[in-house]
Write a structure and sequence with these properties.
292 residues, Immunoglobulin-like, nine-stranded mixed beta sheet, 32% strand, alpha+beta
């Protein structure tokens, strides 16, 4: 029997999983140790697995750095676009990873798995790497079987684009290679938003990214990207499966595009008004001379 994820916390306590509150999550910043911000509530709002806030900038010259929270006991690999595995090693207690170069471009996958007692946990993050053309579609990597339970973007955002607030993201949840119907899926952001929905009969679900950035300034570079986490889980045949996918999302450019358009119209109106005034002034002077 399959148990919805809203009941996972209760069921996990009954079968005695002491680490149920911990969670592996890939992020750009090390965990602060505070259980806040990136959390979800399940379908009934009562499941309380919590993640961590994440954000920060990346120095391209020094390569890409990520952190895996609660990484003790995890098996970690990086998948290349052609699905070849590359071993990676975390450094320090905060799970720091300096992503090694593979020499090829396109998306790579940071894959973390942990199995203990009756819990199977997994976390994934797709990272765009530069190098020689891989000549492989990112669909091959995204659609490949990596975990028993997996959240699969359809499709994943392309390399030179970004997930943006107000954009829609379409997903599929697979369990052991088959679409999982009526599965709870939660989306939470580092800006404090939480959304949840259930998959349809084909295991599909979609969300619209919340427009939750504060103090938006003109230009993408003026607005640091936020982080979002997608989560799902299932309890079946005495085993608890849970998985998450983390990625960045950016401010909807319509914010400053509309500001720029408004400013352009305002300046255009001022210039037009000045031109009209200049044309009207000589006419009035001519009329006064004639009257004299």
């Amino acid at each position: 029997m399959r148990i919805p994820f809203s009941l996972i916390l209760a069921s996990s306590l009954l079968i005695g999983l002491p680490s149920v509150q911990a969670e592996m999550v890939w992020s750009k910043k090390p965990s602060s140790g505070k259980m806040g911000g990136m959390q979800h509530g399940g379908m009934s709002g009562q499941a309380t697995n919590k993640g961590k806030k994440s954000g920060g900038a990346m120095n391209h010259r020094r390569g890409k750095t990520f952190y895996l929270s609660d990484s003790v006991g995890a098996s970690i690999v990086m998948l290349k676009p052609n699905l070849e595995e590359k071993e990676i090693t975390l450094k320090g207690k905060n799970g720091k990873l300096n992503v090694p170069s593979t020499g090829v471009d396109n998306y790579h996958a940071l894959v973390a798995t942990r199995v203990e007692d009756q819990l199977h946990e997994s976390a994934i993050r797709y990272v765009y790497m530069r190098g020689k053309p891989s000549k492989v579609s990112p669909t091959k990597l995204v659609e490949s079987d990596k975990f028993p339970l997996e959240i699969i973007p359809e499709p994943y955002v392309r390399g030179h684009r970004r997930y943006l607030s107000n954009d829609s993201i379409k997903l599929r949840v697979d369990f052991k290679g088959e679409p999982l119907a009526n599965a709870w899926v939660g989306l939470s952001t580092s800006n404090g938003s939480k959304l949840e929905a259930n998959t349809d009969s084909e295991g599909r679900v979609s969300f619209i990214f919340p427009d939750d950035f504060k103090n938006v300034r003109p230009g993408r570079s003026k607005n640091p990207a936020g982080e979002f986490i997608l989560r799902t889980g299932i309890s079946t045949e005495g085993m608890l499966y849970r998985t998450n996918l983390a990625a960045p999302y950016s401010t909807d450019p319509s914010h400053w595009e509309s500001m720029n358009a408004g400013l352009f119209l305002m300046i255009g109106g001022i210039i037009t008004g000045l031109l009209i005034m200049r044309r009207e002034k000589p006419k009035k002077i001519v009329k006064k001379r004639k009257a004299a």
